[in-house]
Amino acid sequence: EPGADPEDVSKEPELYCKECPEGEGSGREWQQLGHQACPRNTTIETIDLPHNYWRASKRTTDIHKCTLWDVEVSDGELASPCLGGDGSESSPASRYCVEGHKGALCEGCVESGSYFDGVNGCKSCPPPTYLAVFVGVVIGGASMLALCIERLRRIDNARLQRAKRHLLRVVALLGLQPKLKILVSFYQVINVLRLREAYDVRVHRAFTEWLDFVAVVDLDYLLGKLALPRDCIRSMGLRLAYLEVWPYGALVFALIWIWIYAAVEQALIAHDSRSKGSPHSSRRSGCEVSLSSPRSLSRPNRPRKPWWHKPLRRSIFATIVIFYLALPVVSRGLFVGASIRCLEFRLDDDPKGETVRYLEDNVGVKCGSDEAIEPVFWTFFVLWPVLVPLAFFLLVLHVRRSVRSRRPSMLANSTAFLWRDYNAPFIYWEIVDLLRKLFLTTFVFFVDENNGNARLLRLVVAVFISALYLTVLALMRPFKRSDDLYLACMSNFLLIRCFTSGIVIKLCDESGAFVDYSCAYYTGLPGSYEATVLVGVLSITMLVVAVLVVAMNIATASANPTIRLVSSGCEPALELSEGCEHDGFVSHVWSTGQDQAATIVRRLQMLLPGICLWLDIENMQSVASLESAVGGSSVFIVFLSQGYFKSRNCRRELYAAHAASKPVIAVRETEQAKGALSVQGLWTEGREGCAFEAGAEAPADAVLGRVFAEAPVDWVRLHVFQLESLKMIALRMLKRSPYYREC
């Protein structure tokens, strides 16, 4: 101890002489470096710190390891802002720091117009006009890209239009939207692993350059590094505003662009209308549907909606997408970019002695200089990670009835980004997934608030949450498409692997608290380099396996064709008529038509995912409910085979369809051995069977006239021809659905 009487020291050395402090990196690491921190006659004030170590004052043994830069100075040693030594040649503010640095861990900058970038030390802040130029370049680039896309869309070139239709078909076939959302969610979570304030998982420095590309597409990186380094904003309140308000700026730009484009488009339409007559005169209205390549099924010419209807839908969609992408980034920015929490460093070894506190986000700034920051912090916390998921939930809650009844309103179509990829019972699943991401990227900061980034608890909790979500996901199967489910499961499995690998890397991190014995003892690996190599090999192996599994499932799914619109490549809209619960009622006689009716229902359900058909062997609870089941179906599909009109229950269904004015789609058996009759034979049997139907209000000819108003679809069992029969049935159903009724 300094100031001690030598005679007292010699009498009671145990009271005055202490072991040399180990610091965060442990004294054994100092010995490995060949550094002797405590030579003979060392006092607490003259402790010689190794390179890359720092303490808050010369009166404390609370020693901390600093950040290493990726710059080699000599013999493999990396540069660091912490100079080490005994601090005798520096001022108190910059003690133990290299020139130009000061503050805790030497991460503050002496010059007022500089900031600490964590890679190369202090750098000069860009001029105030730099942010305006950056925003202008981004807006200009986005505008030029949008104009080029619109220009290509309007080029009247047959080859280009064919390429466009082919691209749309491929995109629709692959179902890119849910897959992109899954990949974006995976990236948003995995990108937090490397952040010092969150999990602080750092791979060996030999591999850091390989992972630099991860930060390039990070919105937080673009704002905090390229646009304007956040440390250049001295006021924490302004920094919070900068990090939390930018999505509103992006939204304003998107809305301005959408409405300007809509106004220009409306003006062009009005000009074309005056010069060429009705804008609808050359529009096609025919309906055609295909499994491969006939023509297109286009939506009919309905009464025109107000011109602002389309931009309003686009505005709602753009708002949802922007907030969906920004939510995890902005929410974690509350903790990573402008944390109100402080790190405390002891100025002496007295437990009740003096301490100094620095902001966790910027250890070059002392706490207490901006006391008004906490209310601002909690305001943004409620505004983003609380209110945004709540708003999404309320939107889905508001449109749930129209979605489940398959009669989506304008608001439901505008919010389809949130629910369209999921089965009807799970339209809230996007909110569940959003909460999972928020927990792993934001709420995890509340786990072991003071030292969570230096310990393993956060990683353990993240593994538990990811495993729980994967289990629920596999059991619930919320996705409409199986390939989306496989990709989501694989992505969460990879997340679990990343978090568990993060535990291994953290145990072996040379700059962490577990160095010396933890890595070899718990993992059997000698150091950080070997741990990183092992994790990298496992990651690449799992990624290759994941890609192969997903590709195989996509190939399997694509082998089962579905009916799509040639004009857009999308599956047709299956909109139910008002008051209906089923798309179609399938009527047949059990003796000759039961097996083929079941085949029709099963194949249509495969070709038109989401279609709901009523079939007696699957849905009937009571014979007395036949009439109500017919009334609750949009169309009436009748499978005509020998004996149909002789069945009393079949005639009941037929007369119920006639009384309810249901559209009738007739399908005729064509195989003689299975009960096929000619159209004339069916007409004759129908007259005989319906002529004396008890209680029938309509004459037989009126009922049969409705059945044979269109030539029946010939049902052929051979696979290729059966597909053609199914396409004809699907086409007639779609033409009679509310969405395409006027085709």
Summary tags:
743 residues; alpha/beta; five-stranded parallel sheet; 50% helix; 8% strand; elongated
Structure description:
With 743 residues, this protein is an alpha/beta fold. Strands 12-11-13-14-15 form a five-stranded parallel beta sheet, sandwiched between helices. Strands 1-2 form a two-stranded antiparallel sheet. A two-stranded antiparallel sheet has the order 3-4. A hairpin with an 8-residue loop joins strand 9 and strand 10. About 3% of the residues have low confidence.
Write a compact overview of the structure shown.
This protein is of the alpha/beta class and 743 residues long. It has helices at 6-11, 13-16, 27-32, 129-154, 158-174, 176-190, 213-216, 219-227, 236-276, 309-336, 373-404, 410-414, 416-419, 429-441, 457-476, 482-507, 518-523, 528-559, 590-607, 616-619, 626-631, 648-659, 679-690, 700-707, 719-735; strands at residues 53-55, 63-65, 72-74, 77-78, 101-102, 108-109, 114-116, 122-124, 342-346, 355-359, 582-587, 613-615, 633-640, 664-669, 713-715. The termini are far apart.
